[in-house]
## 1
Amino acid sequence: MDDNEKTLLLDKSYTCPICDQKIKVKSVKTNVAKFVGTGPDLRPSHSNINVTKYEVASCNYCGYTALVKDFPNTTQVQRKLLRENIQANFKSREEVPCDSYSVEMAISRLKMALLCAVTKTGKVSEVGNICLKISWLYQDLVDELSEDDPGYEEKKTAYLAEAHNQAMNAYEHLSKARMEEDYPIAGMNEATLDYLLSYLAYEKGEYQTAMQYLSGVVTARGISPRLKDKCLDLKDLINAKLHPAE
Ligand SMILES: [Zn+2]
């Protein structure tokens, strides 16, 4: 994957809304990522590139970082908070040229985006969405491990624990967003979000809640066959926990 990765990328330019500097962000070219499918927590997989690594814009001059789609959208109050709490403490640096982002780099960019989202008191869905993507990337780190790596078991356990923690943060914030915000929430329609919350509730061990979220989705009109299949799989998993003897 790595040799080809840079040929799938281009540099996009943005103007930072906090410090007005021009920055470059590596982005996946349109229509080059080959979609394979999504996991039970909607983690996307592509055969030729990990797109989640390229969804963050980060300013190397002031530290302001956000998901690309949220990057330009700041209010005056938020810009003030970001200048006082992020820019004031950030050491400006020249951009380090590189061909692509590693998963570790992408995780640290997302963690900076999380800090900025909390600092600017952004929407809870924005915070939840970032946590979900961090959880996905920790699972990607597990996928990148080889069983021959020294410390394989320890690393795997640590990454999976991080993935779980971030998924639970995502659950907390996205379930709050569901009550407070209008759809799309974190880019999801109602059926997709309810499916995801059901899966995350299942992961948390809240099986009754998981079933409640799921019940509306299964009967929702116009849901994709792919989502329907995921719902049926999840329903089996939840039932197995609710009625273990059957
Ligand atoms: Zn900046």
## 2
Amino acid sequence: MIEANLQNTKKCLLGLTQKELQELALSFDEPAYRGKQLANWLYHQNISSWDEVKNFPKSFKQKLEEGTTISNIEFVESKFSSDDSIKCLFRSKDGYFLETVLIRKNGRHTICVSSQLGCKMNCSFCASSKEGFIRNLKATEIVSQLFLLKQITGERVDNIVYMGMGEPLENFDAVMKSIEIFNSDWGFHIGARKITVSTVGLVPAIKKFSQEKLRQIRLSISVHSPFDDVRREIVPINRKYDLTELMDVLRNEKGRYGREYTFEYTLLKGINDRPEDAVELSKMANDVGAKVNLIAYNPIPDASFERSSLAVMRRFREILDKKKIRNTLRISSGADIDAACGQLRLQRHREQKG
Ligand code: SF4
């Protein structure tokens, strides 16, 4: 496996577009088509060493070895859960931990990538923001998560969801560039319909996202309560962009996506799992044509929230069903591997600080 080179001077190749790889080849006095070949070796062949590359002259390989690095994050550890999920912990060049999860379910392999180190959004039930926000991830660090996870697990990846640590639309340019690399024929060639970007509800960024040429990419919105007074407490961004504003932008931009929205809804005992929550959520989903993904909460040590009982979760679903809202219930992939978003990273971060 390729380990991240910790020297700052080396250019990292993962995260470069085919055009940028062509420019890099030219800067090494090689023909531009070497850039296309580089894209193929990196994104299609997932190489672990330049020794595997047969069609490059020795001199070019040497230049690549000396002047570039393939990935700029390093693998730290992986944890397997009984439900077949794998959580990988990586470390950035500047020494911070980040997490990536591979969820294997119903024959589909979905990777959940992180887009930031920490998170500014401070959702009260989430581990990712508990140690504050450090910085945005670079496109190369987002792309490296998929590249290394494929190497480590040897698994194929069918779907990508931007639902790991961070608010993807806050790191707009890097996320868009990583999507280009995941989606392009010369890149990982993962269909746009298999990519989901999640947001906690940054209204201006949703507008901007809808103007990108990203039709077919799914936008998922973390709703977590259909009532402003509750949502303000658990999803603080609601104090800036309330549900009226959020619903307005979703309604206005609906036609541009070409896909239905998804509402993410983490069920928290006694907070947002009442029948009236389900009824109101149904109205919202119906209004903008959204499907609802219910998520059973994974408790974290720093928050006092509890998971709703199975009976309550079922009752919630029944109401959605009656209102004809398409929905799923995810009972935690990897409950036994510190599955809550950001939790493994938080533990390692605290151990490191002692
Ligand atoms: S739920 Fe998402 S947006 Fe909210 S703090 Fe966690 S990572 Fe950030």
